[in-house]
Amino acid sequence: MINIRKKAKKKALIVFGARPNYMKIAPIYRAMQAHNDWTPILLNTGQHFDKMMSDVFFKSLDLPEPDISLQIGPGTQAQQISKIIRDIEPVLNSVDPAVIIVVGDVTSTLASAIAAATIDLPIAHVEAGLRSRDWSMPEERNRILTDRLSSYLLTPSEDADDNLIAEGIDPSNIFCVGNVMIDTLDWVRPKLPIKETRIKYGVDNSDYAVVTLHRPSNVDNPESLAAIAEGLSAVAQRMPILFPIHPRTQKNLAEFDIKLDSQNIQLLPPLDYAEFMALLSSSSLIITDSGGIQEEATVLGVRCLTLRENTERPITIKYGLNQLVKTQPNEIIAAANRAINAGKAEPQRPPLWDGNTAQRILDVLDGNYDCVVHDVVSKKQSVSAEISKHQAKAPIKR
Predict the structure, then answer these.
(1) What tens digit of pLDDT does each residue of 292-318 get?
(2) Any idea what the CATH number is for the domain that residue 259 is in?
(3) Which of 303, 319, 342 is at the close of a domain?
């Protein structure tokens, strides 16, 4: 049982630090601002220290300047974790929030959760329960460790519930609230500059593909990056490719002396959220190694090739628009040809991906959310567990 002190208005410390976090915190921040009982406080750890990888997204999501900035800067993951823990501890003691909200699976997520756990501060983890089963991925380690420390495990889908229950997590701590990134996607879609963006990048009269690459397993290995580049160059013979390039990917292409077909592959700087989603939503094909883009592609109805051996978002495959592809030229070319030949797809919305996830998160924290956890069998415990409904914990009154 969480020991919570009474306070007139509850403060929630919302932590972010890397670009994938911004789309997840924005709807939560807006929902809390509109709530009479909550005061949201934004804390930026500064994990992403490149302004082009952070500020452009923050502005396009109509978020204010953070209330607190740690500015931890670059470093190894261990160095960043230690800096965040060191610098966030006095913040937690001075702000004294009722809950800390951490999102996703980046270094800032885990480090903030560790610091909060040491002072018994309730932790709400948004996107809990996602699993790739690949411990070589830093994100997988971050996800699992954060989930073990969290009081409120806020999952996006049923498969995430299954993962947590199989790991022995108390079902009364698990709340299937849906995908908060889709809240942001629905918020921005009516104002996307689709026509203007297509004209800007010269694809107003043609089909095109969008590519994103950033995972170390793909871009830090010369052989993998060269194989991907060969595959993309071949795909570009069928349609133009727009490639908003990650700074590390661009650096490694130059360092490894790997060439792309520059006539049909247009390298772009990191784009703000609205412009990027405008390109994504009207594309014919997405080739990526990102996690969140797999989800956005599903809802947008765009076929997605994920250049990875695994995914922590298998629901995007279940709904038919995402496919895992090995990083070999022939595999990339064959998968791209099949996707292009298949033509347009219908948008898909998994359960609770309805744009109302942020409100459900507040309902959980207020103790007003009845979360239906589907029937599960915990093989790990060798017992059958039929779960109908469970009530959220007592509302936070800290």
Answers:
(1) 999 999 999 999 999 999 999 999 999
(2) 3.40.50.2000
(3) 342
**Residue 155 near residue 161, CB atoms below 8 Å:** yes
Note whether 184 and 381 are within 8 A (CB).
Answer: no
CA contacts within 13 A on the Cβ side of 240: 16
Q: Is residue 2 part of a domain?
A: no
Band the pLDDT of 30: cuts 50, 70, 90.
very high
Neighbours of 389 (CB within 10 A): 8
In a shared domain, residues 325 and 366: no
State how many domains the chain has.
2
155 and 228 co-located in one domain: no
Among 48, 125, 214, 374, the one annotated catalytic: 214
214 is annotated as an active-site residue: yes
Collect all residues with Cβ–Cβ distance below 8 Å to 148 and sequence separation of at least 6.
Answer: none
5 domain residue, yes or no: no
Cα gap 322→327, rounded to integer Å: 15
Q: Which pLDDT tens digit goes with each residue over 274-296?
A: 999 999 999 999 999 999 999 99
